[in-house]
Specification:
single chain, alpha+beta, five-stranded mixed beta sheet, two-stranded antiparallel sheet, 4 helices, elongated
């Protein structure tokens, strides 16, 4: 077992060797995640297992644990989103091999270049995030929603009031 996650990795060679990698990745280092998060603080605990199954399929299986900070779409405040992700990816060289991949694997196309592990981690986290982030219970948001008072500047005349005046003149 390797207690360090490299930036780049030859997935096919590592799967042939049958390795397990474990390490911590700072959320701020996973740049593709940052646009959907409100904070880059924290770290993700990642474990990757590469090998070949009984059918000869090269795979990358792993877990990602940690927390990221999202914006609740109900109250517009930051919220902690816990992550406990498990994934199994079948390593393929081209799209024609997707049909031969067992159903227990999602395809991951591998090129001759070493793979950037942060991109694989980002993909799995993005797939696991909720489409609309909301606090678990509405109680957390309710006080903020109830306390909201629109600024007096925003209270404007109804745009259809002009039509009502025209109707009255006829």
């Amino acid at each position: 077992m390797i207690e360090h996650l490299p930036d780049r990795l030859d997935l096919i060679a590592t799967a042939e060797a049958g390795r397990v990698l474990r390490g911590s990745v700072a959320v701020a280092e996973v740049e593709r995640l940052l646009p959907v998060l409100t904070s880059g603080q924290g770290a993700l605990q990642v474990e990757l297992s590469l090998g070949k199954d009984a059918g000869g399929t090269r795979f990358l299986a792993g877990t990602i644990e940690g927390e990221v900070v999202l914006r609740c779409q109900r109250c517009m405040q930051d919220m902690q989103q816990p992550l406990d992700i498990e994934f199994r990816l079948g390593l393929i060289r081209d799209e024609s091999a997707v049909d031969k991949l067992p159903d227990s694997y999602e395809p991951l196309e591998v090129t001759a270049e070493p793979a950037i592990l942060a991109d694989i981690i980002a993909d799995e986290v993005l797939l696991a995030l909720p489409i609309v982030p909301l606090h678990k219970g509405s109680d957390e948001c309710q006080a903020i929603v109830e306390a909201y008072q629109p600024p007096p500047d925003e209270q404007r005349e109804n745009p259809f009031a002009v039509l009502a005046k025209l109707k009255q003149k006829q």
